[in-house]
Fold this sequence. Notes:
By secondary structure, the chain is α+β, with helices and mostly antiparallel strands.
Amino acid sequence: MKILSRYILKDFFTNFLSVLIIFTFALLIGNLIELTQLLIKGFRLSFVIKMIINIIPYLLTYTIPLACLVASLFLFGKLSANHEITAMKSSGLSLFYVSKPLFMAAFLIGTFCFVVSSYISPSCHYVIRKSKKIDIGEIGNINPAQLIEKGVFIEAFHPYIIYCDDKTENSLKNLMIFEVKNDAPATAIFAKEGKMEYNDEEGTIKLELKEGNIDAPNPEDPKKFFRLSFENYHLEFDIPSREDKYIPRSANDMPLGKLTRKINEYEKNGVNNTPLKVELSTRIATSFSCVIFTLIAIPLGIKAHRSEKTIGIALGICLALCYYAFIILAKALDKEAHLYPEYIAWLPNITLLITGIVLFYRMNRR
């Protein structure tokens, strides 16, 4: 039986590595176009190569599960087309027994994917952002809104934590601002738009908010909140130390340990930590998907044995599109704590797991 396991694993890893290289390169092409513009603008070739090297781990978090899916479809499509599955069953081997080495391989690949997405990719992503980040010591010569990055919790303006969905020049869109207090839950400010202005004489930054509301804890009962709506609201911040080169980490930049600590810290302070929870859920879910994709690919590959490579690619792309659509949806709703988007990231895993078990069981009974 060791010969059978070696045969299956050899074919699987041959397909896996080929698909992984092709899909990773395909996704890299889009980034190469942007990086080529850096060369035109005068950036050194060594800088561009550094960017490429640091982009690859991030791409791998998406292409590794996809490569598992397509490689498994290829493998069992081929075994089915050559009637090898029928021969194995005639010899008394169950489909589970035949697939066992593949599940073990998928588990190891998923573990590697989790390490990449939890530690390697965040560090590389942070290197890219640091390379493009402004020096806060030049604050007087820049647009103050450059201190704010979309999708990043900015903690430079103590005691405030600022988060926005988008920005254009000095205008910020869909803001969440939390005033953190040691002895009470944070006061939360939500606004559709904000405009930042730098006051050189006073050395402060003024933020004008429009169309929003304030959720403040009740002084008599901090567990209860009251809401105030506003058309215009003003906040003023002290500029961070000019000796600081403050480079905030986004959720994508945080290694697993820092991400979990931030989730607990924000939970304790009453800050909406849903974007961080979504990031954690997507990392775990996409890594676990290596095993789930393999599970569902086995019966699908056997059923679609004719022209197995063409059908394998088509099925792989369709399943991947459906899967990552839920991941994108979860990230799009990462400010809506009441919708629990961190659980939406798990919906495709649960659906595919149940479907895969049912299909695998039925195929094994035939």
